[in-house]
Each structure stands twice: as C-alpha cells, then as structure tokens.
Design a protein that fits this description.
The chain is α+β, with helices and mostly antiparallel strands. It contains 6 helices and 16 strands. The relative contact order is 0.18. Nickel (II) ion (NI) binds next to loops.
Length: about 220
Amino acid sequence: MRIVIGNVLSATQLADLRAALAKARFVDGRDTAGFAAREVKHNLQTSAADPAIETVRQMVREQLLANEVFALAVRPKALSLMFSRYEAGMRYGLHVDDAIMGGMRSDVAFTLFLSEPESYDGGELMIDSAAGDDAIKLAPGALVAYPATSLHRVAEVTRGARLAAVGWARSFVRDAAQRELLFDLDTARRTLFAQHGPSREFDLISKSLANLLRMWAED
Ligand code: NI
C-alpha cells in the first residue's frame, strides 16, 4: 500500500527545518550507496556526522511518530532519516533500497517533500509498478510512504532545487499486504466508533484487529 499524508509538518516547523538545512553541510550521496546504486545516484545528502541537523532530524522523527495515519499505515518499530538535495542536473536512477541499513530492516520507505513544487522542475519520485511508473510530487510538509520492496527513482531536476527528508521504517509487520489489511480494519473500526459509539460490532472488529496484530507482529 502506498499512502500520502499531508501536513506532517506545520508551517513553522517547515521554516525551522529549511533554515537549518540552509546552513547544513551536504555531501555526495554516492558515499552511502551500494555498488550498483552508486552508478545511478547523483544527489546531495546531509552528513550523518553533522551535529547541526540533529535537532531538526529529531523534530521530524517526533512528528512522524506522533502522526496517527503514519502510525496506522506503517506500524513503525524503528525509523532512520536523512535529508537530500537535488540541484539542476541531479537525479537518482532506478534502484531498490538496501534491505538492511545500519542493522535495521527497511520495510517502508518514505519521502517527506520540503520544497514548493513551483520552485523546481522535475524531481518527481517515480515508483515502478506493473502498470508503469507513478510520478509523485507533493506540497511541502506532505509525505508519501511506500513498500521498500519497490524499484523507484527520482527524475532529473531541470530547474531549481528539490529538498526532501527521506527515510525508512522497520515495521512491526513485515508484509505490505498484512499492513494494508490492518490499516483498513483499524480505519473502519475508528469510523464505526465515531459514527455509532460503543457497540458489540466495534468490540469484535477490535478483537480481530488486535489478534491479527498478535499473529503477525514481530516485536
Ligand atoms: Ni531509494
């Protein structure tokens, strides 16, 4: 399942983040790419060793973990996060993300867009599917999360600069189809409760949801 979540960051948080990134040190993205991805990766990213961005990175992590839709769709156990920048002429060709990064299995990948879409051309996140490529370019503060199992690329930026936070979650539920089933059940049960209050039906769906999660979760 792929999901778009708007307004993960407030306007103030976005402004603080952009100000911090304007002063941050960006390094060649090839430094962290595997041998094959290195051939197609052409971007800049913040250095993991840069303490100046630690405060904003922590802020983004907290916003993500506090976001109810993100929690229901991703069921994150752990998150890793960095910031990337594509200037004119930069792109990231088709690749699959590493299955294990820094000791953490990557189940869900996400991109949190930080630049105004009008301020740059190109730079769409293209996710490969049997039906063709889907191009994704969102408003600043909006995020797309998708299974890390997908082939994907970032189209070349032809004008301006594209700033984004990119990251991966280790989910309590490894399988994307199982995560989607849990998301649908949880969403339906919450709507049922909002419309009709407590009921036997709500309790039975809640029981099924909790027991499916017990069956599938790896804690
Ligand atoms: Ni990637």
